[in-house]
Write a structure and sequence with these properties.
By secondary structure, the protein is of the alpha+beta class. It contains 8 helices and 12 strands.
Length: about 325
């Protein structure tokens, strides 16, 4: 085994000393900026790593529309939502809009008119999406108009979206057929790179529609069959029990030739998924989805032990789960 390197006492390493409140974030294997001589991950990075672990399970918990935040992050190709900041908009910022993605995978964009677009479907650098997005949003609000906001490593102790957004404001996604919202209607012409990115994104987008009869359910169309993906706010174990009761009783259908095929796990929530026939459009899902929601509410209210048949149904549902995040 290699010999341990002797630790250099703070103040003797030749590095400038900084207080604990000023420690910047660096690579995990780099020397800690505090001057201790230890690697960052073994020094001030330990607290940062622990903080991220505590926050990663449900990054959007406490925000209005948590289920729709998850859907827009993982399931919906093209959508936008107006955001309301605590204390109102800064001077010179006419609006802040959440978008699923932006051209060239920009984390955010300060447009020429001062408005801000914040992208949701970007990689997390800290492990806590709410903190990453808050950092990007703050930088966008302070950027010069006409500036894309680059990605960066986010400090572990910065604010989260829950600290910046108005918790009383509505969260109302608008699903789009394509990404034309990238280019303002007032623009004379798009940058060639943006135009090329727009063309690629539109070609890859799956047609998606948000249902109006129930919360956070999204119909989508694929070549072989259509699907309904429904983000639900209930605890996973309770929801699995309820779905198993309905499955055993033949109550999970949302129309002829439809089938509950499994579920996703995403950001601490469960997303049941139904296969639909290719002929079944979004509007035809509205009534059966609302009727299913009533049956589900009854099943969720039951505390009776599962029967043998319900336990088998539950096992099948558990085996058909896929974790997205």
């Amino acid at each position: 085994m290699a010999k341990k390197r002797p630790q250099t006492k703070a103040g003797t390493s030749g590095q400038a000393q900084v207080t604990s409140g000023e420690i910047p974030v660096v690579g995990a294997r780099e020397p800690c900026p505090c001057g201790s001589g230890r690697r960052y991950k073994a020094c001030h990075g330990r607290a940062a790593s622990h903080a991220v672990t505590e926050l990663v399970q449900r990054p959007f918990e406490g925000l209005p529309g948590e289920c729709d935040w998850v859907a827009l992050r993982e399931l919906v190709p093209a959508a936008t939502v107006p955001l309301t900041l605590k204390g109102g908009l800064p001077e010179g910022v006419p609006s802040v809009t959440l978008a699923t993605v932006l051209p060239m995978a920009w984390p955010a964009l300060r447009r020429d008119d001062g408005s801000v677009l914040l992208a949701l479907q970007n990689d997390s650098t800290s492990g806590d999406l709410a903190r990453d997005l808050a950092d990007t949003l703050q930088r966008a609000l302070e950027a010069e108009p006409g500036t894309p906001i680059p990605a960066r490593r986010v400090p572990a102790e910065g604010p989260r979206l829950q600290d910046l957004l108005d918790a009383e404001a509505a969260f109302a996604p608008e699903v789009h057929t394509g990404f034309e919202f990238w280019i303002p209607q007032s623009a004379d012409g798009a940058d060639p790179e943006v135009a090329a990115s727009l063309e690629r994104a539109n070609a890859a987008a799956i047609p998606t529609v948000k249902l109006t009869s129930v919360d956070s359910a999204y119909w989508c169309e694929t070549p072989d069959k259509n699907h309904l993906r429904w983000v639900m706010p209930y605890p996973e174990e309770k929801l699995l029990d309820a779905l198993a009761r309905l499955q055993a009783a033949g109550g999970t259908s949302i129309g002829a030739d439809t089938r509950l095929v499994g579920s996703f796990r995403a950001h601490g929530l469960m997303v049941p998924v139904w296969d639909l026939p290719t002929s079944m459009k979004a509007e035809e899902c509205e009534k059966p989805a609302a009727e299913f929601a009533e049956r589900l509410a009854g099943a969720l209210a039951s505390d009776a032990p599962l029967t043998a048949e319900e336990r088998r149904a539950r096992g099948g549902l558990t085996n058909r789960q896929v974790t997205l995040s």
